[in-house]
Amino acid sequence: MCGRFALYSPYPKLSQALRLLLEPRELTPRYNVAPGTWITAVRHPSDDAPLVMDEVWWGYRPRWAKEKAPEPINATVEKVATSNYFRGAFAHHRCLVPADGWYEWLPVDGKKQPHFLCREDREPIWLAGIWSERPDGKPGCAILTEPARGVAKEIHDRMPLALDAESLEPWLDTHLTDRETIRHVVHHFSADLITHWQVSTRLNKPTHDSPVLIQQADVF
Predict the structure, then answer these.
(1) What is the C-alpha separation between 78 and 141, in angstroms, rounded?
(2) Where are the transmembrane segments (predicted)?
(3) Is-contact 5 33, C-beta < 8 A?
(4) C-alpha to C-alpha distance for 172 and 155, rounded to whole angstroms
(5) Burial of residue 12, with CB atoms counted within 10 A of its CB: 0-12 exposed, 13-18 middle, 19 or more buried
(6) Which residue out of 95, 104, 118, 141 is catalytically annotated?
(7) Tens digits of per-residue pLDDT, 121-136?
(8) Which residue ranges make up each domain of the chain?
(9) Considering 2, 95, 118, 141, which one is annotated as catalytic?
(10) Active site residue 141
(11) Where is 103: in which H helix or E strand?
């Protein structure tokens, strides 16, 4: 799954990695991004609107859903294109969520030890997401997850779908709506790029937000 991540790269670095022209903006470094908060995403607000980097709510509930409908933070790659709840967004409202890494918890001796997972080269990671207009008229998103690959399997059986550089532009292309076409042009990045280390359990409280959270910790 993906339930917590960090984003501290400045806009110029993200813009360079994305290789797409966007309006410059100032980003506040965040080391403990939790669900139910506003997060940075890259998307087309409508089919014909230019690409923007703006804020979306991390929690997906489309406008047409009933009041007590679920508000998932993740959508699985196995069902996102076919589920009634997600397939419209998958076809028409895909987005990218930039991150410098994400967190997972490994059970150890009856406790859960958080780990930080990121690229070995420390470059930004682009997480595949979907978004929809929420009942309040504001955008909400879910991050796609897939079976864990590489060393990520040592920590959790799922991981966010992180895309390779060549897949970013087609993932954002609003004219690509067919599931099979999208599957052929969009690919996850190499599992060989992933590394991880254990971090402090201070991460467990979303109110804790500092660079210390991504530093290696030897004890609980």
Answers:
(1) 17
(2) none
(3) yes
(4) 30
(5) exposed
(6) 104
(7) 999 999 999 999 999 9
(8) 5-214
(9) 2
(10) no
(11) strand 101-108
